[in-house]
Amino acid sequence: MKIQRNTKQRQLILSILMEADRPISINEIYNKVIEKLPSIAKSTIYRNIDILLKQDLIDKYHFHDNEIFYRIKADQNEHKHYVMCDQCNKMFDLPSCPIHDIETAMEEEGFIIQKHQIQISGICKNCAGRKQINTKRHK
Ligand SMILES: [Zn+2]
Ligand SMILES: [Zn+2]
């Protein structure tokens, strides 16, 4: 596969994502990009992100009612899912992808799944613990 040369803007977005090492929202990306390129338009960032998605260098995720997050991929075949805590926004890796079995079944029907998303919401151990302490205190 031909590796396209990435512009300065795209390199900056990639380095921000590399530093984050987890999915980050478009707003987080935007806030970091304007530190270095103050005059950049949000639409330019979106356009660059679209190119990076097409190059398979980054992955797209949805959290909290479809807020979009992006993460840099270690390589083009890397496939990962995340769960985010509703209270502290901490990210957790999903141990495996449950979609592969479904994919096989759908392919038998002739349907080719090209992309999929998994959205799971919940509360992490820390936040759940804190909740219990709070309710005890109020009794
Ligand atoms: Zn939490
Ligand atoms: Zn998957």
From TrEMBL:
Binding site for Zn(2+): 85, 88, 124, 127
Domain of life per record: Bacteria
Keywords: DNA-binding, Iron, Metal-binding, Repressor, Transcription, Transcription regulation, Zinc
Residues noted as binding Fe cation in the record, renumbered to the chain: 116
GO molecular-function term, one example from the UniProt record: zinc ion binding
Pfam families attached to this UniProt entry: FUR
An example Gene Ontology biological process: negative regulation of DNA-templated transcription
Note describing how the cofactor binds: Binds 1 zinc ion per subunit. Binds 1 Mn(2+) or Fe(2+) ion per subunit.
Reported cofactor(s): Zn(2+); Mn(2+); Fe(2+)
Family recorded in the similarity comment: Belongs to the Fur family.
Protein name per Swiss-Prot or TrEMBL: Transcriptional repressor
Species assigned in the record: Mobilitalea sibirica
